[in-house]
Amino acid sequence: AEYVIKNIQWTTCKDFTVQRGQEQIEEYISTWEFHESWLHWTQFLQEEDTKYSKRYHYRVCWSTPTRRKPIPRATASVYFIIEISKIKPATLPVEVFFVLETSRLIHRPGECRFREKWLKDIIENKIILMESL
Length: 133
Fold this sequence. Notes:
Low-confidence stretches: none
Distance between the termini: 45 Å
GO molecular function: protein kinase A regulatory subunit binding
Organism: Nothocercus nigrocapillus
Radius of gyration: 16 Å
Protein name: AKA14 protein
InterPro entries: AKAP, AKAP_28
Strand order of the largest sheet: 1-2-3-4
Order of helices and strands: HEEEEH
Oligomer: single chain
Strand content: 25-35%
Structural class: alpha+beta
């Protein structure tokens, strides 16, 4: 069976707000497959004004707290950017992409399948580094 990459209907540029962007990131994340032990929270970071667009930066912080360790030893962050074009028609959907904190690879919703292993690897590498210091 072939896997279908899930996506959501992203808002148009003219209807975008910072709050709407955060809600849509949460809606998009709900299409990802990950174990129920993962918790996350989303935070708006900043607005960036460029010549041809406005970019809105968000951070989604992930962790797996447990009863024995309610405060996680490390977290993993996924950074989202929602771009609003100043030159394309305002009726077009916003452009969205995201990167993992340890990677430069740019992911686009609807074009790649999220892997829970990405988050695990980030956290494991941080714990290994902390233990080596």
